[in-house]
Amino acid sequence: MVETATPTWSITGDYFENCNCAVVCPCLFSPAAPFSSPPTEGACEVAFAFHLDRGSFGDVSLDGLNAVLIARTPGPMIDGNWQVALYLDERADAGQQQALQAIFAGSAGGVMGGFAPLIGEVLGIRTVPITFRIEGKRRSVEIPDVMQLAVRPVPSAMGADQEIVATNAHPFAPQGVALAVGEEGSTWSDYGMRWDNSGRNGHYGALNWSNN
Fold this sequence. Notes:
Distance between the termini: 26 Å
Structural class: mainly beta
Strand content: over 45%
Low-confidence stretches: none
Helix content: under 10%
CATH class: Mainly Beta
Largest sheet: 14 strands, mixed
């Protein structure tokens, strides 16, 4: 069997996440090693939403597409045994779907390649309509009958229009992630599970990934 080399790829855009930890999440912010602290509720239940302004996977364009990854870990994230599900933009053709799956499931290397060994079970990969919105400092994503999530910045002592930004804190956006909180009604329901992360921890930042 001849193995096919992973093409060079890169994506830029925006991402946000909303988990079930109290603000601020100890997975990132604690005296312990990153991702080694127990989640505040015991298990971690987190959704990551992505919008690609620009993207390419070899000669496949990913411009304008969306994806969502959900993950549940039974304890500290670093301990593994993640259950994950991936949602791909229904506007993507077959080649684009394969590229998105490779990037966000980690098989194509890059940021998610570092997390791929922690995945214990893939619940499913679905192609669905995904609406990703940026309205000022608010981020939201919707998948009909599955997910409705929105986050807004945690209030800053430096002013109502300011964000609290942490640099070199998160591999998804090392240049800076804003501290955020889930808005009321931030829910996900699928695969026999239902989460409500209203009022819980969130982050958002600029996306700039590649396998270079």
